[in-house]
Amino acid sequence: MTAAAVIFDCDGVVVDSEPIAFDMLADDLAAHGLNMPRHQMETELLGGTMRGVWEKARGLGADLPEGWVEAFYEKLYARLLLGTPLVPGIEAVLDALDAAGVPFAMGSNGSPRKMEITMGQHGGLLARFKGRAFSGQAMGRPKPAPDLYLHCAAIMGVEPEACAVIEDSATGALAAAAAGMQCFGYAPHGSPPLAAAGAVLFTRMADLPGLLGV
């Protein structure tokens, strides 16, 4: 397709924060009586909100107390502040979109504070998304609801069907489909759930400008 606008997820697409978060989450859940293999965590928990993780983990037998979400977020923020790398090649993708005059925005299920912490470590990255980075959690309509992506399209003044979404989770791909948007799934190691949710998979950010027609 030739995208008129592009909407990026944050974690796992722009910032490489997922390995950090999942390592911490695995340890924390184990400490509360729930041992989940990494592949199960990525299938069942990737792309959701921490409140959703709390609810699902409790349903699976984890002894998570009230207040766990807030406490885990504080630990996670402290760890992310120590250093969160960018996804390799993402800055070149943003440069290509700028050069082609294609607007872009961000729609994340993460909190606004989390986006500020992770993106704020990398030069002018926050400025590149200034006024166009939105949290489904803060909106009260997280993915897989389409509202977040529809809001991004409206802010950019582009019809939903002309937007491309860049995701790494099935939850996000379902949100894109519900919004009537083409989804491209960043999956360096493959992702059957992401493909099953309708995303066109790619493994290198260097390939994305071509897929977007820029």
Characterise the protein shown here.
The structure is a single chain. The chain has 214 residues and is an alpha/beta fold. It folds into 2 domains: 5-16 and 85-212, HAD superfamily/HAD-like (Rossmann fold, 3-Layer(aba) Sandwich); 18-81, DNA polymerase, domain 1. It has 12 helices and 6 strands. It has helices spanning 18-31, 38-45, 50-59, 68-81, 90-100, 112-119, 125-128, 136-139, 147-156, 170-178, 192-196, 208-212; strands at 5-8, 104-108, 133-135, 163-167, 182-186, 200-202. A 6-stranded parallel sheet has the order 3-2-1-4-5-6. Helix 1 packs across helix 4. The termini are close together.
Offer a few descriptive terms:
48% helix, 6-stranded parallel β-sheet, single chain, DNA polymerase, domain 1, alpha/beta, Rossmann fold, 214 residues, 2 domains
Instruction: Count all strands and give the number.
Output: 6
* Largest sheet: spatial strand order: 3-2-1-4-5-6
Mean of residue pLDDT values: 94
The helical percent reads: 40-55%
Topology of helices and strands:
Elements: E1 5-8, H1 18-31, H2 38-45, H3 50-59, H4 68-81, H5 90-100, E2 104-108, H6 112-119, H7 125-128, E3 133-135, H8 136-139, H9 147-156, E4 163-167, H10 170-178, E5 182-186, H11 192-196, E6 200-202, H12 208-212
Parallel strand pairs: 1-2, 1-4, 2-3, 4-5, 5-6
Gist?
The chain is of the alpha/beta class. It contains twelve helices and six strands. Strands 3-2-1-4-5-6 form a six-stranded parallel β-sheet.
